[in-house]
């Protein structure tokens, strides 16, 4: 079976990573590529690493350009997905890399994004309990944010195992591609290189409610997340350092067993052998996530650390993984867990 896939936002970072993965996918033929300011240009001028597509023209993002495909990937800025998706047929699989359909609570959406809530779609993190089944046959999927992917993979096993209290704390570092490709003065090389800095401190980052919603869903009760993102001087990668109170009686063997149970059979998540710790370098360019966990007995906290590539497992790789599940293809088809080193 060959499916025809269009990518809206082909000139951006997420769109470029989608195309890199789709070029290597044996079951996909690449159809329309669309953008906004870059419409009319050849893709080779924008994504020079995607040589087989160099002569393809970037079309304006319209329903007409995206019609007639089996799958449409949306890699657009927030707030633009609903208007496009509603003009695509119900039989078309629409995989949205943006945030528009991730949150279920309209008031929470409006508080963090400041626009009307578009709705919610099945959430594209198959590793969460019960989620894989909701993706089989789905025709609308919301890919998680990059930070939530890293944090949920690190912490959900502690909640699924009933071992963690409801106050999670997360400090995560991201590479600069997480901010997208649009020019910003605070992302100039001279502002970013050789320095790390926090942003969105004090509960203001829009990924906070996404983490709380899905951790709460696993825990079966509300979970609060104190989330501090930091910007790291690297192009790709997220390292998330997460902790939660260990409930009374939770010992190191219980913690290890809960993580092995939750992650042991996952094709893209590797619970590292005890004593080894995740690194962004080890997952660079791959759809893999690395996870490690420890119990800090003095602090009474479970400490879990994850590493992903924000553009791959954090966006485009997850989108392809979800496409495979939705269409009944083998889940790992076209995706790799092999990184690039050094
Ligand atoms: N970067 C990351 O690590 C992650 C990104 N995402 C999500 O993926 C989406 C894309 O992000 P990213 O690739 O980083 O962003 P970029 O800024 O790199 O790319 C944005 C893309 O959207 C296009 N675009 C801009 N404005 C419009 C518009 N009004 N209508 C149609 N198309 C438009 C741009 O086209 P042009 O260049 O031609 O103007 C470009 O192709 C976002 O929703 C983001 O939240 C999700 C997880 C992680
Ligand atoms: C480094 C950096 O700026 N990262 C982005 C997150 C990117 C992402 O996943 O966000 P979406 O919810 O937009 O899909 C940020 O903090 O806003």
From TrEMBL:
Matching InterPro entries: AGPR, AGPR_AS, AGPR_dimerisation_dom, AGPR_type-1, NAD(P)-bd_dom_sf, Semialdehyde_DH_NAD-bd
GO MF annotation terms: N-acetyl-gamma-glutamyl-phosphate reductase activity
Subcellular location: Cytoplasm
EC number: 1.2.1.38
Residue ranges constituting the Semialdehyde dehydrogenase NAD-binding domain according to the UniProt record: 4-136
Pfam families, alphabetized: Semialdhyde_dh (PF01118), Semialdhyde_dhC_1 (PF22698)
Residues of the active site: 146
Keywords for this protein: Amino-acid biosynthesis, Arginine biosynthesis, Cytoplasm, NADP, Oxidoreductase
Pathway: Amino-acid biosynthesis; L-arginine biosynthesis; N(2)-acetyl-L-ornithine from L-glutamate: step 3/4
The UniProt record lists the keyword Heme: no
Record Gene3D superfamilies: Dihydrodipicolinate Reductase, domain 2, NAD(P)-binding Rossmann-like Domain
Catalytic activity: N-acetyl-L-glutamate 5-semialdehyde + phosphate + NADP(+) = N-acetyl-L-glutamyl 5-phosphate + NADPH + H(+)
Family: Belongs to the NAGSA dehydrogenase family. Type 1 subfamily.
Annotated function: Catalyzes the NADPH-dependent reduction of N-acetyl-5-glutamyl phosphate to yield N-acetyl-L-glutamate 5-semialdehyde.
Name of the molecule in the record: N-acetyl-gamma-glutamyl-phosphate reductase
Species of the source: Streptomyces parvulus
Organism lineage: Bacteria, Bacillati, Actinomycetota, Actinomycetes, Kitasatosporales
Gene that specifies this protein: argC
